[in-house]
Amino acid sequence: MAQVGCAFCPGTACTAEDIESTPQLCPRRVTPEALEQAERIRGGDATVKRYAEVASDVEKTGYRKWPRVQELIEFCARLQIERIGVAFCVGLREETQSLLKILEGHGLSVEAVACTVNGGCNPVGQALVLNACNTQLNVIMGLCLGHDILFTQFSDAPVTTLVVKDRVTCHNTVGPLVNRYWRNALTPST
Ligand code: SF4
What we know:
The model has no long low-confidence stretch (mean pLDDT 96). By secondary structure, this protein is α/β, with parallel strands linked by helices. 45% of the residues lie in helices and 12% in strands. The longest helix has 16 residues, at 46-61. The protein folds into 2 domains: 45-80, no CATH class; 83-190, 3-Layer(aba) Sandwich (Rossmann fold), CATH 3.40.50. The protein has helices at 27-30, 32-44, 46-61, 68-78, 93-105, 123-132, 147-154, 175-178, 180-186, and strands at residues 83-88, 109-114, 137-141, 159-163. It has 9 helices and 4 strands, in the order ααααβαβαβαβαα. Bound molecules: iron/sulfur cluster (SF4).
């Protein structure tokens, strides 16, 4: 089982030129076969190439101008995606209604399915319903941790997350990582 250590590496370029200054757990040292395979996919898979190009273009064009929901609209427009699925938590029904109005206002066709479809918490059901709707891209709106994993696993269409549910931070999941009080409270003392 490989171990990798990018998180505390000072390197930012990750190119052949800086390999000598990288930690022993640099993925380029410990998992070269995986990276060779990735290069073959990046170079040879037309869908991967197109998604990567569009992602770069959206990032560049909307840099510090477009909120994530606008990035989603622009991403779909550039890829000619017309049918969107939304897997939402019933706790975010109002936000989901706002999202639908925005997406449909931009000409997208949207199918939205609640987490409680058919009773209980049913992320597998959400995925299979959206699979039956032949959506081209599915959007997660605040599914619980674990349910988001199951939804992603069973979704035929690619999945992106617009809202990560965090009942404590108004869905600002990075808050406890950037706020010192929360960070200290959550970091076990050694
Ligand atoms: S790939 Fe290597 S050089 Fe790049 S951040 Fe990870 S450890 Fe550092």
